[in-house]
Amino acid sequence: MIHEIGKDNSIFNQFLAEARKEELHTDSARFRKNIERMGEILAYELSKKLDYKTEEIITPLGSSDMRVLEQQPVLATILRAGLPLHQGMLNYFSHAESAFISAYRKPLKNQDEFEVEIEYLSSPNLEGKELVLADPMLATGTSMVLVHKAMMAKGKPNHNHIVAVIATMEGINYVRKNLPKNTTFWIGAIDDELTAQSYIVPGLGDAGDISFGKK
Asked: H-type helices in the chain, by residue range?
């Protein structure tokens, strides 16, 4: 299942438009805030598909039966670009556990080619849980697949949720092919093109560099 949030009219598209706009990329704080806001909206939409239970809540004047989450998800983020998106999702899933993965593109002799290396993984046990794996850009899908594979050492999730601000169908199809069938995609917008260096066009540029400065 693929949910493309930007297909419908909502304030999400205002935040995405500002994140794409090159003239605003000198304002890192504004860019991070827009990514964070989109993370909040993506978290809200995702929350509708989770499992809920009825819990009696005691108020100062009585009690009320409320529908609350059956289980908190695990929010996993690829460093460093994923941090603002992670914060937005954590603002809404405030009781969730977090996982962090360091993955980077290692250039090969041909500068148009690279391989993805994973250096660091910090994660709680994932057995039977809802895993939310977020990265602002889902380009080829290679990083997402390698990160998911590394995380399986921490247990088998009940369901996988892939979250990205912008993706390509090439990346989505690659992830679908290589991840279990119990995987749902939550995407802000799906763009049409990848460059030879695997950057999304029109995209928004390098989310990590815009957020935190050039490497």
From this structure: 12-20, 28-47, 83-92, 142-151, 169-178, 207-212
Distance of CA 49 to the CA centre of its chain: 16
* Nearest residue to 180 (alpha-carbon basis) of 213, 140, 151: 151
Q: Please give the radius of gyration of the chain, using alpha carbons only, rounded to the nearest integer.
A: 18
Using CA atoms, how far apart are residues 150 and 131, in angstroms rounded to an integer?
13
pLDDT, one tens digit per residue, over 155-174 is: 999 999 999 999 999 999 99
Whole-prediction pTM: 0.90
Dist. CA 15–CA 36, nearest whole Å: 9
Cβ(63)–Cβ(56) below 8 Å:
yes
Rounded to whole angstroms, the Cα distance separating 59 from 12 reads 34
CATH class of the domain defined by 2-49+73-212: alpha beta
